[in-house]
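User: If you would, consider this record:
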Amino acid sequence: MSDTKDSDSDSGTGRCAGCMESTSEKFRGFLNFLWNPEEKTVLGRGGKSWGRILIFYLFYYAFLAALFAVSITIVLGTLDPNEPRFQTRLQAPGLSIQPKLDASIKRTSDVIFTAGQADTYTQYTNTLTEFLKPYKENQATLNNCTNGKVKINQQYSMEKPPPSCRFDLADLGPCRNEPYGYDVGRPCIFVKVNRIIKWYPVGFTDLSKAVGNADSNAPPLKDVLMARNRAYDPNRMYVSCYDVTSGNQTYLNTAAGVSANTMYYPEDNGIPFKYFPYYGAFLQKDYMTPLVAVQFNKVTRNVDVRVRCKAYALNIQDNERMRIGYFTFTLRVNE
């Protein structure tokens, strides 16, 4: 029995020694592959071989870089710096509102506060003040355009840029100064139409067509104008904000149907066509998007009200999927 154990131990020791020798040989072979002092090769290649392959790849990658540079130059040469080549997804503008809180605070357009408690609405009033700063700075520099019609069929360039019309902040009425009605529970918001290069609104020739579709459920424009005793101007794009929670606007106006309790500034709640079209930041660096201020004076307290704001123009078709024609947010005034 003892002889058997000794024999097994000797065989195990022999196998271990063989493993060490095999590993050592492999390691020496690897080092020899990295640098062979006898053949003067590195990674199996001599100096001439490495020289040829380096020259080949140098010219190869230089060719690819030149081809890429030429391709980019050709493509950029065909692009107009003033506007995108394709705007197929931007046939009509969407709407947006302010205040829209910054992501550092809470990225949302919902307006929820308590009347009379400054700590609940300061974030909104600060946002509106910051938003209006560029408008105030450009009051004295931009053109006071008097023609209310669309500027179309005109050629502009850097030498002859299109006029940028001044938006008069006085037209915003009580919504032009802090605290924008939030202190008394009558909040103001600013509605604007998103910019689309060379797009301009078209007025209605038949006011019966100025209605929202199933996506927006907007009230007819004639009802909006009638509630404020305003005549329709075909050279204006109108804005209306309405309650889609109650179905009859009672939460927003404390009255059924379209009500004068929701105020609009400018007082005709329309955007003159003189601000359109927009020709892009390259030609109109000082362009300021026109605004409509909306003040909600009779909001039902302690209720989440889904408010929807719509722009009326013949070439704006409401589309929920593309977010065209209207904007929806939540308004809640607590007390």
